[in-house]
User: Fold this.
Amino acid sequence: MSEWTWPTPGISYGGDYNPEQWPRHVWDEDVALMREAGVNLVSVGIFSWAMLEPREGEFDFGWLDEVLDLLHANGIAVDLGTPTAAPPAWFYATYPDSRVVTRDGVVIGPGSRGMVSPSSAAYRRAATRIAGELAQRYAEHAAVVMWHVHNEYGAPVSDDYSPQSVAAFRDWLRERYGSLDALNAAWGTAFWGQVYGEWEHVGAPAATASTANPAQQLDFARFTDHQMRACFIAERDAIRAHARQPITTNFMAHQSYNTDLWRWAREVDIVSDDHYLWSPDPEAHIGLALSADLTRSVARGKPWVLMEHSTSAVNWQGHNIAKRPGEMRRNALTHLGRGADGILFFQWRASRSGAEKFHSAMLPHAGTGSRVFREVVELGSTLGSLAEVAGSRVRPQVAVLYDWESLWAQELEWRPSDRLGFRERMRTYYERLWRDGVTVDFAHPEDDLSGYRLVVAPASYLVTDAAAKNLTGYVAEGGTLLVSCFAAVVDEYDAVHPGGFGTPLRTVLGVATEEFLPIRGAAEVELAGERLPTEVWAEHLVLDGAETRGVYRGGPADGMAAITRHTHGSGTGWYVSTALSVEALAPVVAAVYADAGIVPPGRPEGVEVITRHGETHDYLVAVNHRDQDVRLDLAGTELISGAEVDGLRLAAGATAVVRAGGDRAGGPA
Ligand code: GAL
Assistant:
């Protein structure tokens, strides 16, 4: 890693800036308004390849020189993009074989944006050349404080079934398995007579008559992730050959499907993330919190940059809901509370033309007299007053297990129920913890978990032997583990664990599963005299030492154990074999908290308070999502207003950041 400091003093604030879409005189207005809004960081050049290299090998940096000089003269730092997410028309014309082929054999054309084949040697050459040219030219430019490689790897396209991708997949498999025998064994090719006798016959899991081999599909997901990361690493290294500034690429956390962010985060200097509210969800701020916690967790707790969010509506969902007054500020401060030291938007000025003209921006079409611009200026001033929060850390007591490989595997076809999804379970458990005011980290199942009082596994369909050993050891040493249904079913090849479902966790949970019993209609679980409604999923559990805490009433598992608790070593393992709702989970997790010694802070509903621990003080970031005022027992200096508070009245929809009185005054869990 290169030597570097955080890109700006205090909290970074700004957005994507695309001056190439505007005449020169507009740039002057842009920088003047950026100053007014307190902008100190903009991402430039992300989609500018065609303007920077109009013909192959011919570069035109004149306009970018001028943009960077202008920004620097106005005290605005630059996160300089490599434009490789949108290759120019000449690239597609010269290297037509570099185009992505979809699973159904459709060749993806130019005229939009999106990566060409991540396995294309011509693309790799062209991308590293433009990245290297930029780095050489701007490594010493005073405006450039960070590098932004590509844009959202994995979106909008990643899987590629072109001949070059198939050849690269084969090489990757040779490297992984060494021999065809090993590959045949791992993929279970004896099933449906898929045994391979020649490497040349092994291909990508393109369109097939019936479902394709699941282990092959899972490996193809790993391969695709690997190829995209190799593209990133090649560009990163081309930059590092010349430049010392930190390098990032913008992730999409919980919204990303094709990138294993645990692996990606190891390759960047600063983790950055894009997040957009999901319009159909009336409580999309809970998904936002999840995304922010996941981003901080892949960053291993270090400060990260919210590289993109929106000031108001997006334009790419079906029915795009504008943010209500104050909502943008709540969103931004929630990200900040959960560890972001940079709050940026897509984009600075709304585009007049092109696919995103109906997307909100910091400076909307309606101009500076608009509500949105007023709120943007206000947010800039707020973030300016929070400089001392930068660098402080969130330190939760609870970890939620998140594994992209398990997501890929669980979402393959022909599972016992397509109504039991990874993301849905993740959100439901997360939301339960969020409503209880319990802040969480996410963790990989093979991580060291010893620092957490409680580990929750909402969707751990794929569990490796190493992960099972890790979880078992964690509980043996005193940890509390809560595992949700359909867990530890398969290994890393999507093969059922020998001995049956759940076997790897049998020691720690004292239970395994004989049969899955998806529910037609609804059933109930009786827990300590209470009847909890459930649907979708039940299991026939076989107890091996665990005590029964909840029992199925009605449905296919009527009278059988539904929820179990087991003591292993000095800790406890819980298993919830059905897909409980957020509400129905409340009494279950209350019992689990008690085992783990966790006392939820008991905040008013719809209010989040997150603690960031600084070197000398704790900072409590409070966000009121309700339409009513609330009172919070926070004391100290409210940094935005400068007021001393002892008990804080937080107005409907308002936010506050309190530097806790005295050193390290306690905050919520
Ligand atoms: C992001 C993308 C941006 C912009 C934005 C619109 O996914 O990185 O370039 O398209 O979406 O919401």
The pocket of beta-D-galactopyranose is lined by residues 151-152, 274, 276, 308, 314, 346, 356, 359 (CB under 6 Å).
